[in-house]
Write a structure and sequence with these properties.
Strand order of the largest sheet: 1-2-3
Oligomer: single chain
CATH architecture of the largest domain: Up-down Bundle
Shape: elongated
CATH class of the largest domain: Mainly Alpha
Order of helices and strands: HHHHHHHEEHEH
Strand content: 5-15%
Largest sheet: 3 strands, mixed
Structural class: mainly alpha
Number of helices: 9
CATH topology of the largest domain: Alpha-lytic protease prodomain-like
Number of domains: 2
Length: about 325
C-alpha cells in the first residue's frame, strides 16, 4: 500500500504539471479542442487526489464497524473518477456546440500542437506504468487511474491530428467538431469506469478470479475433496473474500475436517495471484455421492465409483450440494 501511495503521488504531481501546460496551450491558441484536453486534465488531478485518499483509507486496519476492512473505498474512488470524466465530457460537448455557432479566432496552432503532443506522450507512459503496477499490486485504483491517463493520451493523439488538419485546411469550425467527437469518447470511457465500480460495489463476481481458483483446485485436487459448490467471491480492495461449501467424508472427525479445510485455504493463497480470505463450510458426504467419490478403500461406500464430476464455473458456483 505504501508503494501505491508513492505511485499515486507521482501521478498527481505529473498531472498538475501537464494540466498547467495544457492551459498554457489553450490561452495561446483559444482552441476549443485544446480546452477539451485541458479540462480533462483537471479531472486527472481531482481523480488522483481522491485516489490518494482512497488508498490511505484502504490502509486502515479492520475495526468493529468495518470487519472486512476499508478496501471497498477503491470502488467508490473509481466511481467518482468515472463520474468526473463523464461530467467533463458533457461540459466539453456543450461548450463546443455553442462555439459552432459563435466561433472563436484560433491562433498559434503549431505551438499549441507541440505542447499537446508532448503532454500526450508523458500521459501514455505514465498510464502504462500505473497499469503495470496495478497488476503487480492488485490495485483497482491504480488500474483506473492508469486507464484514465492512457485515455487522455489517446485523446491528445487525436487532438494533435485534428489540429494539424485545421492548420492545413484553415477550416476553423473543425475545432468544435473535433472537440465534440473527443467529448463523446470521454463520456464513453467515464461510463465504463462507472460500470466497473458499480459492479464491485454490488459484489459482482470476478469470473477471471473464479476461473483461476477453480483451475487451482482441479490441479491440486485431493481424493477426500468430494465436492465443491456454492463458491462466491467478494472484492475488498487488494483482498479477495471467498466462501464455499466443501464436501468431505462424513466419518472424518473435527480435527481431520479442520486439516482439510486449511489445506484448501493454503492452496489458494499460495497459487492465486490475490490475497484471499477463505471461509469454508464443510458438508458431510451422502450415499448418493459414492458414484463419483474418489476416496480409495472407503469403508462406507455403498456403490462403486462410476464417473467424475468436473469442477467448472457452472457447477462450482451453484448452490447445490451433490450432483446426481
Amino acid at each position: 500500500m505504501q508503494k501505491q501511495k508513492k505511485i499515486i503521488l507521482l501521478s498527481l504531481g505529473v498531472g498538475i504539471m501537464l494540466m498547467i501546460a495544457k492551459f498554457i496551450a489553450y490561452f495561446i491558441t483559444s482552441s476549443n479542442a485544446i480546452l477539451t484536453d485541458a479540462a480533462e486534465s483537471i479531472v486527472n488531478v481531482l481523480a488522483s487526489s481522491f485516489a490518494f485518499y482512497s488508498i490511505y483509507l484502504a490502509l486502515q486496519p479492520r475495526d468493529v464497524n468495518h470487519p472486512y476492512g476499508h478496501g471497498k473505498v477503491e470502488f467508490f474512488s473509481v466511481f467518482v473518477e468515472g463520474s468526473l470524466i463523464l461530467l467533463a465530457g458533457l461540459i466539453i460537448i456543450i461548450k463546443s456546440a455553442y462555439n459552432l455557432f459563435h466561433p472563436q479566432i484560433i491562433q498559434f496552432l503549431i505551438q499549441g500542437t507541440v505542447i499537446i503532443g508532448f503532454t500526450g506522450f508523458i500521459n501514455f507512459w505514465l498510464g502504462y506504468y500505473l497499469i503495470k503496477q496495478s497488476k503487480i499490486l492488485n490495485s483497482l485504483t491504480l488500474f483506473a487511474d492508469g486507464k484514465h491517463l492512457q485515455t487522455d493520451a489517446f485523446t491528445s493523439l487525436g487532438l494533435v491530428a485534428g489540429l494539424i488538419l485545421i492548420y492545413l485546411t484553415d477550416i476553423n469550425y473543425l475545432d468544435s467538431v473535433l472537440s465534440i467527437a473527443l467529448g463523446v469518447y470521454i463520456i464513453y470511457n467515464g461510463y465504463k469506469l462507472i460500470r466497473k465500480s458499480v459492479g464491485g460495489l454490488m459484489d459482482e463476481s470476478d469470473f477471471v478470479v473464479v476461473e483461476e481458483v477453480i483451475k487451482t483446485l482441479n490441479n491440486h485436487r485431493h481424493d477426500s475433496w468430494i465436492d465443491v459448490h456454492n463458491l462466491r467471491t467478494q472484492r475488498y480492495g487488494t483482498e479477495l473474500h471467498i466462501d464455499c461449501h466443501l464436501t468431505l467424508p462424513y466419518y472424518y472427525d473435527l480435527n481431520k475436517v479442520h486439516e482439510e479445510v486449511s489445506k484448501v485455504d493454503t492452496l489458494i493463497n499460495e497459487n492465486v495471484r490475490i490475497q484471499t480470505e477463505f471461509f469454508i463450510h464443510a458438508d458431510p458426504c451422502l450415499a448418493k455421492c459414492c458414484h463419483y467419490c474418489r476416496m480409495p478403500d472407503c469403508p462406507v461406500r455403498s456403490e462403486p465409483k462410476r464417473t467424475d464430476i468436473i469442477w467448472n464455473r457452472h457447477f462450482v458456483t451453484r448452490n447445490q450440494k451433490h450432483f446426481s
